[in-house]
Write a structure and sequence with these properties.
2 copies of one chain form a homodimer.
Chain A (H helix, E strand, L loop, with lengths): L2 H7 L9 E12 L2 E8 L9 E2 L2 E3 L6 H13 L5 E8 L10 E9 L2 H10 L4 E6 L11 E3 L12 H15 L5 H4 L4 E2 L1 H12 L5 H11 L2 E7 L9 E5 L3
Chain A binds a DNA duplex (27 and 27 nucleotides) through α7.
Chain lengths: 240, 240
DNA sequence: GTAATAGTGTCTGTGAGACAATATAAG
DNA sequence: CTTATATTGTCTCACAGACACTATTAC
């Protein structure tokens, strides 16, 4: 029996299968705080609760492609840093049926965040409060624009907490911070992003030194316009 | 319509579903090198190639439970550090059908590694060579006990590379190194594990200082026996 | 000039690498 | 005593935090 014959006889319906979905944590920085875009559930279960945008994975669609499709369809966006986060597979995480969810983290610039809100008015921008520090992680709080604490559907609070832990962990050794900033930015803006993600103030001279020493920043020679006082130089992210 | 009625009417067969499997990277340190336990495929596709032990996820089984079951059934083991690694979901990663694989990293002490080999003689202990350094990652090489380079089945080489990257990344801020060591160990053994994982020599006094300053080590007052020369003190892993 | 922020210089403390010195056990 | 490794001490260097100083722009 060669491989072609084998494949013909293989029975792909031999056992019951779970459904597989992707859920997206659409993350940006708004008003100095991390924020996430949520959709209101209009169906049971958890009807009326806020949830992460998601969708089922097509049978001929890779996980990354499914995440990119949900990003387009549910968030009206083409461009964003997208990375796989973790796969949530508790048996009872969805009461309808067995659904395994592969969570993705999408990082949005402030412009992309606002553009998504414009394209999809049903999206809610919710502020994220992270009460813990360090590598352990823990629960996070989600606040509506009216400062009401929201209870997320399913295990989406745990997914969001995982996203914040990942983002904090990668912040200073990877380039994720630049995914939250526009093409051109000042060092102050870069520091603001770091401080918002970490939830802590940073020392300015030390921050500048460390960022410049990394060699990931290219000075443009251009300066911000419209600043009330001395305008800062604009930098661009550029490896090495 | 309340939630119970809704669930009754929900059609769980509405669309085609992928299969979901778990694959385990059973990792230990042997002769100062990282090593992985492999199984030989006796079926098409990729018959005769070496693969990571794996199994399908049951419809009433969480991902973690499936990984623990595979650990028991395919590796004859009950105890090991087990953590989810990454989910591999390319459409064509398995020619039989669409299979999404949730990879797990299992860390074995040298005793557990040998016990698994004893319990499951079909397992092959293969040495892992990691040619890269730093956070980027890249391909790894797998060598049989006869020093022959092995080609792994499916995308298992990529899974193994992901495992090595994760292990290196977590080595000095987490407790993974202790999962590779017995209950009682010397500082030299701890350093050997770090050096094997990192593939680099470390400075002894600096290593000792850093480990002791972390506060994760409890001196036992006992010393190793049978050492050819001065015996080292035995330590135990203990948080804070 | 004043206000407010951008950007730089310098001191200090912490921690890692390098290297040497001391301690200890087997034979 | 010799050998080989465990364990400790010390020097130096790199780097981050703290803090003050200079630079620049709007008004």
């Amino acid at each position: 029996m060669n491989e072609t014959e084998f494949l013909k006889e293989y029975d792909p319906t031999a056992f019951q299968r779970p459904s597989v979905a992707v859920d997206l944590v659409l993350l940006g920085i708004r008003d100095g705080w991390p924020a996430v875009l949520l959709v209101k559930r209009d169906q049971l279960p958890h009807v009326g609760r806020w949830a992460l945008p998601g969708g089922f994975v097509g049978i001929d669609e890779s996980l990354d492609a499914a995440a990119a499709r949900v990003l387009r369809e549910k968030a009206g966006m083409g461009e964003a840093h997208l990375e796989q986060l973790y796969t949530f597979g508790a048996v009872d995480r969805d009461p309808r049926m067995r659904i395994i969810s592969v969570a993705y983290l999408a990082l949005l610039t402030e412009q992309a965040f606002d553009a998504a809100l414009g394209a999809m008015p049903a999206l809610l921008p919710a502020a994220i409060q992270v009460p813990w520090a360090g590598e352990t992680g823990g629960p996070v709080t989600v606040l509506s624009p009216e400062k009401q604490e929201l209870t997320l559907a399913f295990d989406h609070a745990a997914i969001l907490a995982t996203a914040m832990l990942r983002l904090r962990g990668k912040l200073d050794y990877s380039d994720v911070a630049f995914a939250l900033l526009p093409e051109l930015f000042t060092l102050r803006q870069l520091q603001d992003v770091h401080e918002a993600v970490l939830g802590a103030a940073l020392n300015k001279p030390a921050f500048r030194r460390r960022q410049l020493d990394k060699g990931w920043l290219a000075a443009t020679g251009a300066y911000e316009v419209g600043a009330a006082f001395r305008p800062a130089e604009l930098y661009r992210f550029q490896r090495h």
